[in-house]
TrEMBL record:
Its EC number is 2.5.1.7. The gene is murA. Cell wall formation. Adds enolpyruvyl to UDP-N-acetylglucosamine. It comes from Mangrovihabitans endophyticus. GO terms for biological process: cell division; cell wall organization; peptidoglycan biosynthetic process; regulation of cell shape; UDP-N-acetylgalactosamine biosynthetic process. Belongs to the EPSP synthase family. MurA subfamily. It is an enzyme of class 2 (transferase). Pathway: Cell wall biogenesis; peptidoglycan biosynthesis. This is UDP-N-acetylglucosamine 1-carboxyvinyltransferase.
Length: 451
């Protein structure tokens, strides 16, 4: 067990307001995009999270000057003097995040070579990078895998190509975008991911001078341009963090207003939240009222005060129910009457955390079959990827070890909802993706303390 421990005295409803800033899964990619420009970029509303530190470190190693701007959360990235970095220096970041894989295209364009360390990120299945490598090779990159990482070069430059992803992977779509924008000629990507964070990355790239068309049916066309310049961008809000706090409100029978959350990015989540019996109000209308300034809206989420209802759900690529919304919501589902079903179709091993919930009194059974929805890629491959949650269950305190970012947050919610005092080990992992979560817990009246 690790020594970063949070003691959680559970059973108190969380109440109050917190704010979410730019989405982790856009901010880190927009930072990589800055490398493609030949003048400085400015990103606003950047959360203070570990993933931002890792990408800042990698950018600096490659000669990008990263500094804080005048506004809180403003990040300035100056890529005027981009240079190669040594393998040893880059390897310091090995295992810390999955973002380094996205440096391939930008580095090949800017310095002609790239070295990518071993990747990190959450342990939620094998998380292969075969789509990335295949795409890079089709652009003309030479990819050499070595024990210390991956070496890439493009002696004949990078050229536009026609690609079709076997699955609409978020990362592989970003890889293609970040490579195609400065490749020679036109790229057509079929079966692309179209998550709001991807569309926002396309907005960033368009601001830089890229020409990208999003067609219907997951087809994206990119017309390569010889050079790009810097951008100024306010990222979309973090819809995963917003949903995590919404689930915390429901599980603890509380009321949380998530300032900055945006309805358009969360429609699927809001429908499910309502089906369970959760109540919400979109408060961003306040911002638009004439004559009202300095008031920020978002979404207020609360428990209805009566019993919650079970639902059958499956995770999917956008516009489906996000895989990252799954873990926090399952904690709330332990409080719903009846049998809920959660069919995880994006990652094959993302239900392991339910064991800890069972240890706290939940009744969750995991199955290898595709339950409750359409058969998915994992049905015949022996992965336990469907869960049946029987509720309501009275949760009691336990000692918990955080396994990964989203499961970690769900452990925290479970400890906050449970009667008694839990000890949550490894909480620092949560800082990878949730800005100042301890400060926010304090603001919501949670009774937590560091040991
Ligand atoms: N896949 C492959 N081969 C590849 C790439 C992906 O088989 O080369 C598979 C994966 O194994 C997975 C599926 O495709 O089964 C989807 O993976 P995807 O590439 O879409 O995920 P990712 O880009 O690695 C991002 C987010 C994840 C989020 C997923 C799905 C970032 C940094 N990460 O991961 O977020 O769950 O998209 O929306 O953007 C998190 O924030 O905690 C997190 C894990």
């Amino acid at each position: 067990m690790t020594d970063d421990v949070l003691t959680v005295h559970g059973g108190t409803p969380l109440r109050g307001q917190i704010r979410v800033r730019g989405a982790k899964n856009l901010v880190s990619k927009a930072m990589v995009a800055a490398l493609l420009g030949e003048s400085p970029s400015r990103l606003y509303d950047v959360p203070r999270i570990r993933d931002v530190e890792v990408v800042s470190g990698l950018l600096e190693l490659h000669g990008v000057k990263v500094s804080a701007g005048a506004d809180d959360g403003e990040l300035v990235m100056d890529p005027t003097n981009v240079e190669e970095a040594s393998t040893d220096e880059i390897n310091v970041h090995a295992g810390s995040s999955r973002i380094p894989i996205l440096f391939c295209g930008p580095l090949l364009h800017r310095v002609g070579r790239a070295f990518i360390p071993d990747l990190g990120g959450c342990h939620i299945g094998p998380r292969p990078i075969d789509f990335h490598i295949q795409a890079l090779r089709e652009f003309g990159a030479i990819v050499d895998k070595a024990p210390e990482g991956m070496h890439l070069s493009a002696p004949n430059g990078l050229h536009g190509t026609k690609l079709e992803l076997p699955y609409p992977s978020v990362g592989a779509t970003e890889q293609v975008l970040l490579t195609a924008v400065r490749a020679d000629g036109v790229t057509e990507l079929r079966n692309a991911a179209i998550e709001p964070e991807i569309i926002d990355l396309i907005c960033v790239l368009q601001k830089m001078g890229a020409i990208i068309t999003v067609h219907t049916d997951r087809v994206i066309e990119i017309q390569g341009v010889p050079r790009l310049h810097g951008y100024q961008h306010k990222p979309i809000p973090d819809r995963i963090e917003a949903a995590s706090w919404a689930a915390a409100a429901l599980a603890t029978k509380g009321e949380i207003e998530v300032l900055g959350a945006r309805q358009a990015d969360m429609m699927t989540f809001l429908n499910v939240f309502r089906s369970i019996g959760g109540e919400f109000e979109i408060t961003d209308a306040r911002v638009a009222r004439p004559g009202v300034t300095g008031v920020e809206g978002g979404i207020k989420f609360w428990h209805p005060g009566h019993e919650l209802q079970a639902v059958a759900l499956e995770t999917d690529v956008h516009p489906g129910f996000m895989t990252d919304w799954q873990q926090p919501l399952v904690v709330a589902l332990t409080q719903a009457r009846g049998l809920s079903i959660m069919h995880e179709t994006v990652y094959e091993q993302r239900l392991g955390y339910t064991q800890a919930l069972n240890q706290m009194g939940a009744t969750i059974q995991v199955y290898r079959d595709c339950l409750g929805g359409t058969p998915c890629r994992f049905g015949r491959r022996n992965f336990k990827h469907s869960a049946v949650i029987a509720g309501p269950s009275k949760l009691h305190a336990a000692d918990l070890e955080i396994p990964d970012l989203r499961a970690g947050f769900s452990h925290l919610i479970a400890a906050l909802a449970a009667e008694g005092t839990s000890r949550v080990y490894g909480v620092d992992l949560i800082n990878r993706g949730y800005e100042d979560f301890e400060g926010k817990l304090g603001a919501l009246g949670a009774l937590v303390e560091r040991l």
